[in-house]
Amino acid sequence: MGNNGKSNPDDLLVSEESAALAEDTVEIPSTDGMTIITIYRHYCKGCEICSEVCPKDVLKMVVATDRWEGSIVEVVNMDNCNACMLCEHQCPDFAIEVRSLKKEKRKKAKEKIAGEK
Ligand code: SF4
Ligand code: SF4
User: Fold this and answer.
1) Ligand 2 within 6 A of 77 CB?
2) Where do the domains of the chain lie, and which CATH numbers do they carry?
3) Is this structure's pTM higher than 0.90?
4) Atom of ligand 2 at shortest distance to CA of 88?
């Protein structure tokens, strides 16, 4: 081992940074647990695109003094989300992700049927 088994200070810095970023990721499930929105707050630059395109008023911009002087998107109405994915597709910074377990189940069922043919 080139460093005599000692941890490299640069590696330590990188892992502390990764831990801090992971802490700044929030996952919000719907009440039925079928839809989950994940917000990577550290990537959000507060451009408001997602909150403007959302047809269900699920998203809102909030001042995020813990991060910077601007705002960051927040989920305010999770159970209204229809998993249309518009927010995820329109976000230029990959800061928001939508997972629909219903859609995933449907897709798997279709693939199974297609595989049986
Ligand atoms: S579109 Fe992306 S970067 Fe812009 S506010 Fe929404 S999550 Fe943040
Ligand atoms: S998936 Fe659609 S309804 Fe849900 S938050 Fe995004 S834009 Fe709004």
Assistant:
1) no
2) 20-116 (3.30.70.20)
3) no
4) 6
Residues 85-110: pLDDT tens digits? 999 999 999 999 999 998 888 888 88
58, 71 Cβ separation under 8 angstroms: no
28 lines ligand 2 (CB under 6 A): no
Q: Tell me, in angstroms, the distance from the centre of ligand 1 to residue 87's CA.
A: 8
Verify whether ligand 2 is closer than 6 Å to residue 96 (CB atom).
Answer: no
